Write the structure tokens for this entry.
Amino acid sequence: MQQKYTYLLLFAMTFRLITDGRPHPLLSKPSFGAYLFVYFTGNSRNEEAIRFAISMDGYHFKVLNKNKAVINSSAISETGGVRDPHIQRGADGKTFYMVAADMVSAKGWNSNRGLVMLKSTDLIHWSSATVNFQKQYAGQDSLLRVWASQTVYDSTVGKYMVYFSLKYGKDPDKLYYAYANPDFTKLEGKPKQLFYSPDNAACIDGDILAKDGKYYLLFKTEDRLPGIKIAVSDRLAGRYTLQSPTNVQQTSSPVEGPGTFKLNNGKGYILMYDMYASGVCQFTRTTDIKNFKTVDNEVEMDFHPRHGIIMPITKSEAGRLIKKWMTPDDIVQTVKAEGLKENNIKLDTVLNTLYLPFKPGTDLRRVHLKFMQLPDVTISPETAIDFTHGPVNIRVAIASGKTATYKVISLEDHNPVLEGYYADPEILYAEKTSKFYIYPTSDGFPDWGSTYFKVFSSPDLVNWQDHGTILDLTKDVNWAKRNAWAPCILERKINGAYKYFYYFCAAQKIGVAVADDPLGPFVDSGKPLIDQPPPEVKGGQQIDPDIFTDPQSGKSYLYWGNGYMAGAELNNDMISLKPGTTVMLTPDSTFREGSYVFYRKGKYYFMWSEDDTRSENYRVRYGVALSPLGKIKVPAQNVVIAKDPAKGIYGTGHNSVLQLPGKDEWYLVYHRFNYPKGIKMGASAGWYREVCIDKLEFDGDGSIRQVVPTHNGVRMVHIKK
């Protein structure tokens, strides 16, 4: 009898663990050693699908299945698309539940009426069901949308709670919940409101985190003060009250889709959210769910996720995903090393050859190649490699049986000159410091969403130092907060002191900031210099300024325009245009944007970019004039630089020009698509660009010889003081 009672007690205790998910000494929770990122990527039909990425530390992520969908949206949804996926480990520790919005955004933001429910025991094979609220529930005629569902286990009732936002008619979006049936194929009971906004603000994108007996509901308010807020409750489905009316996101950019996860190392929690206007996710760390610190500089991923969630997983689960959705090619491209230009690694999958470009001056005698440490993956050799004797072989093996051997070749290419994604480069040689400076657009943001400007310096045109942000629209400019594009700069000595006039684009307007040093700090003038097109212009944008001082007269001129080229003389204050001097200069139909003017041997050279910066055919042309605002004559052969498909170089445009002091020696500074990935990115290549420098040469009659873009770039240049 005692033995029977013991068995019943053990069964009851085990059943309690399975149904309420609380820790118990009989069954320990899984030992987590990795993370799974579940996300979608955008608003096009093929982007509205569930994708996976993996990380071993919660900060460095690698895509699975080459960033392609791991589940066919058409097979699991009514609309053909899914967005905002969420994944949850079950109370039994081994079953996984996903929910997602059943939605195709192209049909409109008020077009979806339901969600998708999925279930798996291995993270690879999923059963699914759809829930259409108008079909399942009566009285739903005014329902406009069902957004951003998530699921969590409710131990008080032994069921999975699914929560989401609903919008009815003219009412704001509100957060609701319902419980799933045991098979996780439909919802039981009519949805109930989960959170009551104190000011009736629209609330979407809920995410619940349990900590220390409290439930924290993070969500986005769509109106009033848009942003991410936190409400707290003692009960999962209980009444939530605002922790604070203050938003918790650590950015002034628009955000949505908050998602939290606990770090496996016990050092707190990560709150991430989708900065949808900037095309990135921001990561913040917290220990108390009140104070959040940005940790973007610690995060790295080879994809651009939209609204998603990260879930801790075991190493064995990670190994299963790797075996299914990774190849040796994927793994070998995770290589890192001191001095390696990681954005420009090239893998030739036909020849199984990996090309590793290193920064100038890197010691290639003892290179430690480091790869992402993944379970069930071995890479050899593990010792330091000497590249001075030629190529070496590396072998990658996955426990699934996938193996490959690669010939690895080291390169020392000077292009691109800047590490990272940058475009629209403006180059300056500063007399004050006897150094070169590049002032670019910060790139890598979809739809050119950067909000800040940086500067780089070099003593020799080859070795460049990043000096960080010199002007942040969100902090330093009060008349525009978006689209920080295409700056230019002028050094001028006034009353014995150097001044630097920095002209820049913000929200398709042109402003000017001033500093006493090439590195700043730059102070905005407080208003745009140009915010309207010339009267005769219909269309186009007020962007892409270029500043030029005529060495013949000492007068300074500003040029600008997208779709048109305008020019005007600047007043002596350098922050206003001289009335009555604005003229239209558009040279011909090839002009798109990116004006640049310089003077050489009696001629005023005008350069511009043709086509769209997202096009592989983006290129530079030129014309000449007899004065700074004179009529531009266009030569029959006037291409300055264009793509070179044989070298994999595309999208060469938006340039500036450098003349070495006291010499007839010239350089073209321009951007191109990222090499080698840009040409495969489609239109996205237009915001993943990189800065290059090549020699600019002239024929005896002053004609510009077409520049051949190179990977080698230019040699070191030293200016004697």
Residues 1-27 have pLDDT under 50 and may be disordered.
